[in-house]
Write a structure and sequence with these properties.
heterodimer; A: mainly alpha; 2 domains; B: mainly alpha; about 80% helix; about 0% strand
Chain lengths: ~260, ~230
């Protein structure tokens, strides 16, 4: 029996809804509500029989958790399997098995690439853009990030839908872990450049001593954070150190 | 009116941060300029955007771990700085910005606690959805997902303007009472910005991050100094 194919309009609706995947994230089922919400238009089209549709929805209300971008691939793949279930080509447990198998590895891959590499890299790039070019610099970087992120999200969804289990090979071809390593290193370099701009600006606005102070704060701050210092107390210490140093330098100048 | 606008911006950012899209629109680098622009001072927002983005670069939602609520902190800081600048009759300056950071940054920690409450609330929504499906109301079951957007919006929409209001009241009073504090506070801002860059590099978790960070910093400073000498 051939599996029924869903219309592009329904697929577009599912993709739109998958942007709400974490709307009701909870410790019980994590993204279960979001997943059921996203896949519902596809299930309604695949199962005209109300009872079968409800049974399919109940399957997708079970525990699910993945990286929100990578989840698009699993959502597409789950629809691929539901089509086969609806056509009688697969047992009803297959979509669930597919989700359970892929959610962990893809979550790790997505966290490692998107959350700890791509987004921080673009965050650092946008920060440098803000320091050098102001608002337009930020806008350009954010647009670029979203072109990349949304393209990947759509491609992952379609790859999951068209290729089912073979989506794993498609994702492996992207070489995300290697790219993540490079992005993290270059992101750190961008932070260094941003620090240099801060140093130059401080020197220009408040004199060379202010530039030295900003450089010391960057170097000592890195050392403190690397030794496990907590972020917010370190920020208070840095700001107060800066203000106190300014007072001390002012007094020295005053007394000489 | 300013508080209402800030409430709306902060609420929408809190929704975008986790519940919908996640396209960096709630990150400090975007949110601070948007909040500044909405309150009539884009440059004020841009001034705090870069240090806050780098400072909270490591605030990411990995698995079930909850990061600090950087969007709430940013909305309060940017809003507070812009409103305080306006109360003083000028734009946002580094000394106003650092005071806004010192006053409002703890809201990011409070926001994390609020996120835990949101998760508990969402558990109830999950149970409600299961019950609705058991009673053959599939549409009501899936709709429960969208109700999860309400609480994060409401929390940020209340706390961010409250933080900004505190900043608007305290910062002008402080700077008027101690006019000599402006210059030292300006240096405090630059020290914070320097630390923020280090925090960003540290958050990138690369083995060779220190090498890349310090090499880029050193090289750029040397090039700037050399260019300055050539100019002179």
């Amino acid at each position: 029996m051939t599996a029924p194919r869903l219309s592009p309009a329904i697929l577009a609706r599912v993709f739109w809804r998958c942007l709400f995947l974490q709307a009701a994230w909870n410790r019980r089922g994590m993204q279960n509500l979001g997943f059921a919400y996203a896949i519902e238009p596809a299930l309604r089209a695949l199962y005209p029989d109300e009872a079968r549709c409800e049974a399919a929805l109940a399957r997708h209300l079970r525990f699910f958790n993945c990286h929100p971008y990578m989840a698009a691939a699993i959502l597409g793949g789950a629809i691929h399997h539901e089509e086969r279930v609806a056509a009688g080509a697969e047992p009803e447990g297959q979509p669930l098995l597919y989700k359970q198998t892929l959610q962990g590895p893809l979550a790790a891959l997505g966290d490692g690439f998107f959350w700890t590499a791509l987004r921080p890299f673009f965050g650092a790039l946008a920060a440098l853009g803000a320091l050098l070019l102001g608002g337009p610099g930020v806008a350009a970087v954010i647009v670029l990030y979203n072109v990349i992120h949304l393209t990947l999200r759509v491609r992952l969804f379609l790859a999951g839908y068209r290729r089912g289990d073979a989506v794993v090979a498609e994702i492996a071809k992207l070489g995300l872990p290697l790219a993540a390593d490079r992005l993290r290193e270059w992101g750190a370099a961008l932070c260094g450049l941003a620090a240099a701009v801060v140093v130059a600006r401080a020197a220009a606005l408040s004199g060379p001593a202010a530039g030295v102070l900003a450089a010391v704060a960057a170097a000592a701050g890195y050392a403190a954070l690397a030794r496990g210092a907590r972020l917010l107390p370190t920020a208070y210490a840095a700001a107060l150190f800066g203000a106190a140093a300014a007072v001390a330098v002012g007094r020295l100048h005053g007394s000489s | 009116m300013g508080y209402l606008v800030l409430a709306l911006v902060a609420g929408l950012a809190a929704v975008e941060r986790k519940g919908f899209l996640q396209a960096m629109l709630s990150r400090p680098i975007t949110l601070a300029p948007v909040a500044g622009w909405a309150l009539g001072d884009l440059q004020g927002g841009v001034l705090v955007a870069a240090p806050l983005e780098l400072f909270w670069l490591g605030a990411v939602n990995l698995g079930a771990a909850l990061p600090v609520h950087e969007a709430l902190g940013t909305a309060a800081i940017a809003g507070g700085a812009v409103l305080a600048g306006r109360a003083l009759g000028g734009g946002t300056t580094p000394e106003i910005a650092i005071l806004a950071v010192l006053l409002c940054a703890p809201l990011a920690l409070l926001g994390r606690k609020a996120d835990r409450l949101v998760e508990i609330w969402n558990e109830r929504l999950a149970v409600r959805a299961e019950n609705a499906l058991a009673h053959h109301h599939p549409a009501a079951a899936v709709r429960a997902n969208l109700y999860g957007l309400f609480l994060p919006f409401a929390i940020a929409a209340v706390l961010a303007p409250a933080g900004a209001a505190a900043a608007e009241a305290i910062i002008p009073a402080l700077l008027r009472a101690f006019p000599g504090a402006a210059a030292p506070l300006r240096l405090g801002f630059f020290a914070f910005a320097g630390l923020a860059c280090a925090s960003g590099a540290k958050a990138l978790r690369a083995r060779r991050a220190p090498r890349f960070f310090f090499a880029a910093l050193g090289l750029a400073v040397i090039v700037t100094l050399a260019a300055g000498r050539l100019h002179a």
